[in-house]
Structures are given as C-alpha cells and as structure tokens.
Write a structure and sequence with these properties.
The chain is α+β, with helices and mostly antiparallel strands and 423 residues long. It has 14 helices and eight strands.
C-alpha cells in the first residue's frame, strides 16, 4: 500500500535578491536554489528519473534512508509552477505503522528544526498522512469518551431533577443557548416539545459542559432546604457547632461538580482534563496536525478518563439509583402516614370533644351503685368456710367490667330486700 505526505514550497521574497554591487563594480547574482538542488543536499542517496530536464517543471525519483538498520526506498514526485513547488513523498509498505514511522523521519528532515528548505522557501504541509493515522487511531477513544460522559450527565441530572434536568442548576442564558442548539440538531421523529429533553445534552460542546459542571450556583432545592432549616430552628443560638456549619453549607454557592460528581471517583482535576481533551479534539475533528508525542499523551488521558467514567456509571447505577429509590419510598411513606394521621384525627375529633357528655351516664350509674353498696359494708354474713380456687383478679378490670354491664336497678332492690328478710 502507498502512503503519502504532500508539501508546498513557496519561494521567499528577498530584498536585492538579484544583484549586489561590490567596490569594483562587480555584479554578484544571488540564485535561489531549486527544489531539486535542496533535495540532493537533504537526501544524498537520491536519484531523479528526468536527469536531462532543464526546465524541471515535473520531476520524480527516489531516495533511501536508514530505518531499523536497513535501507528503505522512498518515492517522490514534484511539480514546479512559477517559482513554487508541489512535492509528494510516497512510502510503500504493508504496515501503516511502519509507513507512518518512515514518513515521520522524512517529515522531520523536510520541515523539522534546522532544515535547509526554510531559508529560501516557506514550506506548507498540504496532506499529512501521519496526522491522519493518529487521528483515526484516537477517534474511537474520543468517541467512547464523549458518549460515556454524556451518559453520566444524563443519568445524574435526570436522577436529581427529572424533566427539569437541564434547567435546574443553569442560568436562563445557558438554557436559551441549549434550546437553540437543540433546534439545529433536531431529528425528524422528535417533536418540538420534546426536542430539548431528548437532545439537550447532545447539543453540548466542551465549553458548554465546562459551564454546566463548574459554574457556581444556588438551586431552588437548596433554597427550600435552607428555609425549612430556619423554620425548624427559631433560636439559632441553641444549635451546636456542627448544626450551624451545616446551615452555612446549605446556603453556599456550589458547582454541580461539587454537588453530584465528587463521590464518583472521576479525576479530581477533571476541568483541566476536559480542556486538554478539547484541544486534542479540535485537532482530531478538524483533521489538523497530530504528532506521535501528542498521540501518546492524548491516548493516555482518554484511556484514564474512560476508565473513570465507567466507574462513575457503575456507582450511579448501583448506589445512587438505590439511594434515590429509598429516599422516594421514605417520602411516600411519610406522606401516607401524615394523611392517615390527619384523617384519624379529623374523624375522632367530635368524639374527643364530647367525651365528657358521652361518659356522663356511666359515671352517674357508678356513683349510684357506690351509694347502694355502702349499707352492706358493715354486715356480717355467715358464709361457710369454703376454700375457693384462686382467681387472678388482676386479669379482670372490675370497674371497667361493670361499666360495660347494663344493670337493672329494680333487680338490685329485690336482691337487697331478700338479704334483709333472711337476716
């Protein structure tokens, strides 16, 4: 397979480049070296296919360099247009990585530090397979990173704010920007009403994510918690040091990163990491220069970040989801208990308010029975000495028992009369 790098050489303009007069009026002509001459100096082991072409409008050939302790042949071809040149360097190899390494060596000789071309020409890389190779290698990692980051954002924000996930902690300006971008990226089967909800985080670029995660704010939920705290604590002087600190923490402006991501084991310096990846992403997405050193650095950052996002997703799904369910169930039970309590109190209130009137007949009957029983307290009855089985009287609530028995006053009078007559 052939792999190519392409260059353009634009001749520099110099003052008095054609001639300089000496004291003896001898004219010295400064001749700009041709690309052919410069290639000969740069690559000693070089051959040209058109040796006799004096115009040098089109030329080609090959040269050899040392690579892995062996001579490697490299092809080239160039066109001359006016004073400028258009050069192609071609490497034939079965291995993309080997071709990249060889092209990298040639590239450093042509445009690297202390090269011999820059004195007379401005060199431009018009096609860089080296960068293409590294961009292609990095893109799958960049793709994976962005998709997993978006999943983390979706999960955490919807978990905490439901349908208001993109507006709960952000400014109106941010929300308007997001809506505009969502409309631009709108797909056919998404209604306008659902556009922001379905595509909101798909519209975020890196600067938006930075604003979302690292802008300090004070949410409505935090305001409500603070108001409840103040309502429940009329006298703040009675609070302990830890309780007062908790109150201060409630009213502090925070970033969403501090609120939701500190416990997800993502790189603590994620803002810098995000900025570094953004810089690499601009080069990758726009097919700009990526060197091997940049490739290795970006690859390391992406792999580390992807791993941390995997952990964050796992923590969110295995811990945060369960914790939220427990919290919602507790809130549901509390509301149910409050509703039932209010209902019971409401239904029993008339009975409680009229309890004295309802128990008045029983209290009067109890007093009457006490009066009737007084005469018998001094009587001595000849009762046979019979051993009765023990009765655990505490088991019976005697007063309450008689309170529940309907007593016939006439029957009691007859019973008393019989006792008197026998005596």
């Amino acid at each position: 397979m052939n792999f190519k790098n392409s260059y353009i050489f634009l001749r520099r303009e110099k003052k008095n480049e054609n001639k300089n007069r000496t004291k003896k009026d001898v004219i010295v002509i400064n001749i700009i070296p041709s690309l052919k001459e410069l290639l000969k100096k740069c690559f000693p082991d070089i051959t040209f296919s058109d040796k006799e072409n004096t115009t040098d409008i089109i030329n080609s050939g090959s040269f050899k360099i040392n690579y892995n302790k062996k001579k490697v042949e490299i092809l080239f071809k160039y066109h001359k247009v006016g004073y400028n040149y258009y050069l192609d360097i071609i490497v034939n190899s079965r291995s993309k990585k080997e071709a990249v390494n060889i092209l990298d060596i040639v590239n450093s000789l042509i445009i690297g530090k202390n090269n011999i071309f820059d004195e007379h020409y401005v060199s431009i890389v018009s096609y860089d397979y080296i960068s293409e190779y590294y961009c292609n290698r990095l893109f799958p990692y960049l793709n994976e990173f962005e998709r997993k980051l978006r999943k983390v954002l979706f999960c955490i924000y919807t978990l905490n704010f439901n349908l208001e996930y993109y507006s709960a902690t952000t400014s109106e300006e941010f929300q308007e920007d997001l809506k505009k971008k969502s409309n631009i990226s709108k797909v056919e089967n998404v209604s306008k009403e659902d556009c922001y909800l379905k595509l909101g985080f798909y519209s975020l670029d890196y600067s938006d994510i930075d604003r979302l995660l690292f802008t300090r704010s004070f949410t409505n939920d935090e305001f409500d918690k603070l108001q409840k705290f103040l309502k429940d604590n009329d006298d703040l002087s009675k609070l302990s040091d830890s309780e007062i600190r908790e109150a201060f923490n409630l009213c502090a402006y925070k970033t969403d990163w501090e609120r939701f991501f500190n416990n997800k084991k993502i790189n603590k310096d994620f803002q810098k990491t995000l900025n570094d990846i953004r810089n690499f992403r601009n080069n990758i997405a726009h097919c700009k220069f990526i060197s091997e050193n940049q490739y290795q650095s970006c690859l390391q950052i992406l792999k580390k970040s992807i791993k941390s996002l995997d952990i964050a997703i796992k923590i969110t799904e295995e811990k945060d989801f369960i914790a939220k369910n427990i919290e919602l169930q507790h809130e549901s039970f509390t509301k149910l208990a409050n509703v039932l309590s209010d209902a019971v109190l409401k239904s029993c209130k008339p009975l409680i308010d009229n309890i004295n009137e309802l128990t008045k007949p029983m209290r009067e009957l109890s007093e009457k029975l006490s009066e009737i029983a007084k005469p018998f307290s001094s009587l001595n009855f000849n009762i046979p000495n019979i051993v009765l089985p023990e009765i655990e009287l505490p088991k019976f609530n005697i007063p309450n028992y008689f309170d529940k028995v309907e007593i016939n006053e006439e029957y009691i009078n007859i019973l008393l009369q019989n006792v008197i007559e026998r005596r």
